[in-house]
Design brief:
- The complex is a heterodimer of chains A (343) and B (534).
- With 343 residues, chain A is mainly α.
- Chain A is 70% helix and 1% strand.
- Chain A contains 13 helices and 2 strands.
- In chain A, strands 1-2 form a two-stranded antiparallel sheet.
- The longest helix of chain A is centred in the last third of the chain and has 33 residues, at 310-342.
- The radius of gyration of chain A is 20 Å and the shape is globular.
- In chain B, helix 8 (248-255) packs across helix 18 (501-508) and helix 14 (385-398) crosses helix 15 (415-428).
- Chain B has a 6-stranded mixed β-sheet, sandwiched between helices. Chain B has a 6-stranded mixed β-sheet with strand order 16-17-18-13-19-20, sandwiched between helices. Chain B has a 4-stranded antiparallel β-sheet with strand order 2-1-4-5, with no helix packed on it.
- Chain B has helices spanning 61-68, 91-96, 114-118, 133-146, 162-175, 192-207, 219-225, 248-255, 309-316, 339-345, 354-358, 365-370, 374-377, 385-398, 415-428, 445-460, 472-478, 501-508, and strands at 23-32, 35-45, 50-54, 76-81, 84-86, 99-102, 180-184, 211-215, 228-233, 236-242, 273-282, 286-294, 298-303, 324-329, 332-333, 347-350, 433-437, 464-468, 481-486, 489-495.
- Chain B has 3 domains: 23-255, P-loop containing nucleotide triphosphate hydrolases (Rossmann fold); 260-346 and 431-534, Rossmann fold (3-Layer(aba) Sandwich), CATH 3.40.50; 361-430, no CATH class.
- The chains are: A mainly alpha (343), B alpha/beta (534).
- Chain A binds chain B through residues 1, 4-5, 7-8, 10-11, 13-15, 200-206, 209-210, 213-214, 216-223, 280-281, 333, 336-338, 340-343, and chain B through 33-34, 317-319, 338-343, 349, 351, 356-364, 367, 371-372, 374-375, 378, 381-385, 404, 407-409, 411-415.
């Protein structure tokens, strides 16, 4: 697959922009490069940053965000947005923890049920957007509130303590396979690889890009745009379910507020990862790398002496920078191709 | 200021009129990328005259209107207003100079009231600079009284007819004390009665010294309303004359007569009937359309923009649904609920707007070419990049698309090559009937000749082709038969041998005296169909 490049970046060889434009177009590469440079700078000030234990700790937490970001990216590529991801994670996390605490199910069944709940909630979003034709930003703002409200109603003031979970349930968040590969990172990698294959090498994936890039052309080709949107929201819900289960394993102590406020980070990861908010372009790997980038940023701040309180502001800034870079690139490409057409 | 007599319309002679022209354009040129939209155009608009501006689609009328409206700046040439050199910097400046444009589809704010729309941007202000709503309302009412029109100025614009919305635009121009009123195809969607009311108002404004530029396809209206008429062709000024010295035949002759080097269709034996359409009707779009297409035949759909040709194509391709009528494909009655159904049955449609509907600009050439045939090409869900490239290569090679490879993004191709990719895409779906909607619009002449060669070869290979084109020489050179559409009806069917640009233009403008047209049997009832029965 590597030889074909990504949908967003294919044809870069033909784009006659500067090397800077080319570099910025390869968002996965540029993000990785920026992370390496920033990492090196941070480790000068704080040597403890570049240690195996710190890096794996960051990667494990970022994996949860990465899984959720993959689902969000899928939705954003179809020219929609899902603001309810964090509430879906919250509902799933509490339900799984609570069912385990009451010994209703064993761990595998609870995990499967949690993912199933995520899928159902995502399907609800899909119906509202694709069938009822409510603009996704409004629809998911509504379901964000509804799902979170549901979470509060179910949880009340109860908090599931770590001790309420079956012994060993939270181990995956702390286990390194072969001593080097954290289980969570493996989960995120599997999700990224599957997502990439679906988007790049299946008919459905091609339809996702077509619908997001040019709905009119897709309609003329008879591509079922609504079905594509519905499936995208459903998969987003399913992955929010996976992220919810991971949340329980990572934090251990769960109440009705799990995941509150993280949707900004998830959307930031998607945008920073090079997925266009106008739909139609971007990759799964980019979104996951975006999550990793934000994770490292959050980790590095206190190490270089900046307060965690800066984090929100910095995330906002990163979103703006990423979107501005996209806009500049888009204008350059349009100008270049307009000139070519004129010739 | 001298007011010329309101009626009867005289052709003001520049020598005897003391006032300078209201607008004097000299040597105006405007180029968009590869297209020369206007070339060295001069035009005078005199105080108190109604001046008709006619020409084929693409003749440069809209560009001229946009220059006067301040939307575009001319590349060269001078503009004088009342004898003084002027530049029109932007739409607001154009309004400030006293120029008002009324578009075919008025651009109003549907949720604001009539009065608010009339005074948007220049509402009378009360104390403390706040808007004087009472004054706004009263002044709007008095404007409509002047126009002798009954409108509730407190009602929102949403839901008003197109004609009423145009009147709001006209009232707005009055409120700005515009001295130049440009009407851009104002009657296209008006009923006969509404057209009459509009004309009465325009004549009244002329009596008050307002200069009116009336852009229209409808020649009978130009004769009914205008003092003088100017014809554009291919971005050039052809003639300006008093309408009383002109006949419809003169106008048509000036409008057409383009000579363009083309690749004419190669003679091909015509085969069996592939597609047969009868009584096809979609209310409000077209009615009683009937024709047939045979294998190896190119059937040209001529007519002006909005005559219903694209709408017929959309129904045939299953994008829109018909209200009445029959479609037989290979002798079997068919109804397509969706484009994919039409595609499976062997119909392909190359849409009018290749940017909007034809291509996915973010995709590579290969991804675009295989998009309609993915299920057939890859029945087992997974896409194999190498197989995809092979198919794309085969079809783009056949059409000699100039590219660095099938992995190139379509967005980086020239217009002509993009169009070839769209063609390749539909050829890959192996159709029996190919509908081409304006296949050469906006592409350079070299690519155009190539596209014509390809179309001809496709017909020779046994496809039935419907060629929708507003480019008269193209339709004449390529078609075995030409069906002329006017206001949603076929007004003439002209075989290749008898087709002339004048004949087609007469039928397309719904002009009286269509006797010039060598009509086939289907046109007999439609002859002399006036232009006003919207």
């Amino acid at each position: 697959m590597a030889e074909t490049g990504t949908i967003a970046t294919r044809g870069v060889m033909q784009a006659r922009g500067s090397w800077l434009t080319t570099f910025a177009r390869q968002r996965e590469l540029s993000l990785a490069a920026i992370m390496i440079v920033l990492g090196a700078l941070v480790s000068i000030v704080a040597p403890q940053f570049l240690t195996f234990s710190n890096l794996t700790a960051v990667a494990v937490l970022a994996s949860i965000y990465a899984v959720a970001s993959v689902g969000e990216a899928l939705v954003v590529i179809t020219r929609n947005i899902d603001l309810s991801v964090e509430a879906m994670i919250g509902v799933v996390a509490y339900c799984v923890a609570s069912l385990l605490e009451r010994h209703v199910f064993d761990a595998p069944a609870a995990i499967a049920l949690g993912i199933g709940i995520g899928l159902l909630l995502g399907m609800a979003n899909g119906v509202i957007v694709a069938v009822l034709r409510v603009p996704s930003i409004v629809a998911t703002l509504g379901t964000l509130s509804i799902f979170r409200g549901l979470d509060y109603v179910i949880a009340g003031s109860h908090q599931v303590p770590l001790a309420g979970l079956p012994p060993g349930f939270t181990d995956p968040a702390r286990t390194n396979l072969l001593g080097i590969l954290p289980v969570f990172v493996l989960v995120a990698l599997v999700v990224v690889v599957l997502g990439t294959i679906i988007l790049r090498s299946t008919r459905f994936g091609r339809q996702v890009y077509a619908v997001g890039s040019n709905p009119e052309a897709a309609a003329i080709l008879g591509i079922p745009a609504r079905f594509v949107e519905f499936v995208a929201f459903s998969i987003c819900g399913l992955l929010a379910g996976v992220a919810g289960v991971m949340w329980v394993m990572f934090f251990g102590t769960i109440n009705g507020t799990a995941g509150t406020g993280i949707v900004l980070s998830i959307i930031a990861a998607v945008v920073v990862g090079g997925v266009s908010t106008l739909g139609g372009s971007g990759t799964i790997a980019g979104a996951a790398l975006g999550a990793l980038f934000l994770g490292f940023t959050a980790n590095a701040l206190p190490l270089v002496g900046l307060s965690q309180f800066w984090l929100q502001a910095i995330y906002g800034l990163v979103i703006l920078v990423a979107v501005s870079v996209d806009a500049v690139i888009l204008r350059r490409i349009q100008r270049a191709s307009a000139e070519r057409r004129a010739r | 200021m001298t007011l010329p007599p309101a009626a009867p319309p005289l052709a003001p002679d520049p020598v005897t009129v003391s006032a300078p022209p209201r607008i004097e354009l000299r040597g105006i040129s405007k180029r968009f990328a590869a297209t020369q939209a206007l070339e060295d155009v001069s035009l005078d608009l005199l105080p108190g005259e109604v001046h008709g501006l006619v020409g084929e689609n693409g003749a440069g009328k809209s560009t001229l209107v946009k220059i006067l409206a301040g939307v575009h700046q001319p590349d060269s040439g001078t503009i004088r207003l009342d004898g003084e050199a002027a530049q029109i910097h932007g739409p607001a400046h154009s309004r400030a100079l006293g120029i008002a444009v009324v578009h075919q589809e008025p651009r109003l704010f549907p949720d604001l009231t009539v009065a608010e729309n009339v005074f948007i941007g220049h509402a009378p202000s009360g104390r403390l600079g706040s808007i004087d709503w009472g004054g706004t309302r009263r002044r709007a009412e008095s404007l409509f009284r002047e126009l002798d029109v009954q409108v509730d100025v407190g009602a929102p614009v949403r839901g008003l007819s197109m004609a009423d919305q145009q009147l709001i635009e006209i009232a707005k121009s009055l409120s700005l004390e515009a001295r130049v009123l440009i009407l851009d195809e104002p009657t296209a969607s008006l009923s006969a009665h509404e057209v009459e009311r509009l004309f009465t108002i325009v004549r009244r404004l002329r009596g008050r010294g307002v200069s009116v530029l009336f852009v229209s396809h409808r020649l009978d209206e130009v004769f009914a309303l205008c003092d003088r008429a100017t014809v554009f062709r291919d971005g050039r000024h052809v003639v300006t004359m008093a309408t009383r010295d002109l006949t419809t035949a003169d106008l048509v002759r000036h409008m057409v007569g383009r000579t363009v080097s083309l690749f004419p269709k190669v003679e091909t034996p015509i085969g069996d009937v592939l597609l047969e359409v009868s009584g096809l009707t979609k209310v409000g779009e077209f009615r009683d359309v009937g024709f047939s297409v045979r294998a190896g035949e190119i059937v040209g759909f001529a007519g002006l923009v909005g005559a219903g040709r694209t709408e017929v194509a959309r129904v045939l391709f299953g994008i829109d649904q018909r209200d009445r009528g029959k479609v037989l494909l290979g002798g079997v009655p068919v109804t397509f609920a969706s484009p994919s159904a039409a595609m499976h049955a062997g119909i392909a449609y190359l849409p009018e707007d290749r940017h909007q509907e034809g291509l996915v600009q973010d995709f590579t050439i290969a991804q675009n070419v295989t998009l309609p045939i993915l299920p057939r090409l890859f029945p087992r869900l997974l896409i194999h990049a190498s197989a995809e490239r092979k198919v794309a290569h085969e079809f783009t090679e056949q059409l000699s698309v100039r590219m660095t490879g099938v992995d190139q993004l379509v967005g980086s191709l020239s217009g002509g090559n993009q169009q070839k990719v769209v063609l390749a895409k539909w050829l890959a779906s192996e159709p029996r009937i190919l509908i081409l909607d304006e296949p050469t619009r906006g592409i350079d002449i070299g690519a155009k000749v190539e596209v014509h060669r390809i179309i001809s070869e496709l017909a020779a290979s046994g496809l039935g082709i419907i060629l929708i084109s507003s480019d008269l020489p193209e339709v004449l050179a390529m078609s075995d038969r030409i069906l002329v559409f006017h206001e949603g009806k076929i007004t003439a069917e002209i075989p290749r041998k008898l087709a002339t640009q004048e004949g087609v233009m007469f039928a397309a403008t719904g002009s009286a005296g269509a006797g010039l047209v060598a009509t086939g049997p289907t046109a007999s009832g439609a002859r002399g169909d006036g232009g006003l029965d919207g």
